[in-house]
Amino acid sequence: xxxxxxxxxxxxxxxxxxxxxxxxxxxxxxxxxxxxxxxxxxxxxxxxxxxxxxxxxxxxxxxxxxxxxxxxxxxxxxxxxxxxxxxxxxxxxxxxxxxxxxxxxxxxxxxxxxxxxxxxxxxxxxxxxxxxxxxxxxxxxxxxxxxxxxxxxxxxxxxxxxxxxxxxxxxxxxxxxxxxxxxxxxxxxxxxxxxxxxxxxxxxxxxxxxxxxxxxxxxxxxxxxxxxxxxxxxxxxxxxxxxxxxxxxxxxxxxxxxxxxxxxxxxxxxxxxxxxxxxxxxxxxxxxxxxxxxxxxxxxxxxxxxxxxxxxxxxxxxxxxxxxxxxxxxxxxxxxxxxxxxxxxxxxxxxxxxxxxxxxxxxxxxxxxxxxxxxxxxxxxxxxxxxxxxxxxxxxxxxxxxxxxxxxxxxxxxxxxxxxxxxxxxxxxxxxxxxxxxxxxxxxxxxxxxxxxxxxxxxxxxxxxxxxxxxxxxxxxxxxxxxxxxxxxxxxxxxxxxxxxxxxxxxxxxxxxx
Length: 514
Known about the structure:
- The chain is an alpha/beta fold.
- It has helices at residues 12-24, 27-37, 40-50, 63-74, 78-91, 93-101, 107-112, 120-132, 136-154, 167-252, 255-281, 285-348, 369-380, 386-391, 413-423, 445-454, 472-480, 496-501, and strands at residues 362-368, 397-406, 426-430, 433-434, 440-441, 461-465, 484-489, 504-507.
- It is elongated and about 155 Å long.
């Protein structure tokens, strides 16, 4: 196992080692280790590195004074502690290799038989080697050797067998022990001063930060003032340049021309004063001003009326455009429906079978409820009887019966629709649509025509209850498909062409009102 290397200065390893050494080694023990392990040359090098400029020179101090100074600085600065650790590692490299080569269980047993422990120098080196080892067992053995060393210095134990050979060194150690307490008190005092200095340094650091903030604000204000000064100087230079240009223009002018312009100005001033005097003397000036104000007011009213008329004309034009667009759209839909009907007719020509017996005839009933109800109300002031229309089918088979109604939000609509369903109608409901021009549209013409076309293969006859002439093309197409077409409507509401085109016309004037 290799001994741990010396940590680098200001690293995490040296900080951890420094904290551990401060907790395991006190000042007297460190002084003894330094005195015994390091020679004067190494102590002077550490002292010269750490001593203040106005301090005593290392050559003028005894070794005991050098050891005391270095020992006190060790506990006050981690940088000085690193220098001490570095020199002790170099001096004790052999002992560190010895300790590192011993197994954990043999450290105490092997070192008790180590003869060099009788000498304080070798004992101090071995203690340092044990302190630098990373194992707990080595630290425990180091603590025992430190206690033995301190007891031997205090005279509590028997002197070692080799004391006679180191008498001079023991005398120096005893002298060092006598000064140890003085150094300890100096170290404690230095630590107190150090804490006070640290607090003072922290206070000064806070004051420095506040001062930096204030300086920053002052610098910003100074820069702003400098920018304003530069802008003012630029404006001043610009004004000076303009003044010079004006002076040059004035100098370049002909004096005679200037004199002539001055005379013209004086004449214009006199003429203006004369006109003002004449205007004040005119008796009808106030009346003219009042008339002018009245004319201005009438002009404003006429402009307002013109603007209103223009807006009204624009609105009417937009309404006409919307109506025209809606009419074109409806015509386009009717054309598309007619094209669809013709296309379907062309594919179904010749498919119709001969007309069956009347009792076997299949009938499709399609009632334009809005058209029938409005016609009955206008002609007779009564409600339309939807049940009587079903009687027009007679004994024939009723394949489909559809009533096309419009929900205008009137009361009783749900009851009316329910009654139609009870009669046997399939009720289709539509909500009236509001056009952009304000009119309302709710016709069922297109939907009724499409339902008739879709059901043409299931019926032999079609009964349409409506007098609307828009159904004439549908009737003609049905007749081309060899379908029997019947129309039921009021006499006053039937379109002439629709009546002529249908195979049968059922007048509703008598039995279709209640």
